[in-house]
Amino acid sequence: MNEKKLTKKEEEFCRWFSRLQNPREAALRAGFTVMPEYRALSMLSKRNIAERVHELEKENRADENLISAGFKRLAFGSCSDAVKLILGCHDGTVPDVDSLDLFGVSEIKYTCGKGMEIKFFDRLKALEKLSQISQSGVNAAAASFYEALERSAAERTDVTDIG
Predict the structure, then answer these.
(1) Which end of the chain has fewer CB atoms within 10 angstroms, the N or the C?
(2) Which has the higher per-residue pLDDT, 114 or 41?
């Protein structure tokens, strides 16, 4: 492959475009202030730019999936291992902490002789974030579909109305 290496501004454009899916906005944020729409479309027509955008989009989806999985674990995970920890400390049979699933625990306080306090992450907030992630995916898909329709309509300006 004899692909030309991307400039810093082109790389920045790719990063912004992979997040925003808006060519003009991505070009402006990358520093292309003169005719940003033209520059964006020109860059997107280059193979190395399109490949880089595709790579970044895959990375973004992987990150979103990881974040979503974490929120699902917080929202739907079990608290039984935290209960085992409290009961074990109470009766002196402390379980192996490395074997416990304490993902949903935000804080543990232990006071010698007085007991233990465990705080959990807020499950409702995790559900709200999951809902926002889900909704943003739906909105992005709808926006992408709407933009495709707009482009299609703009390209069909040569069709005349035969009324």
Answers:
(1) C
(2) 41
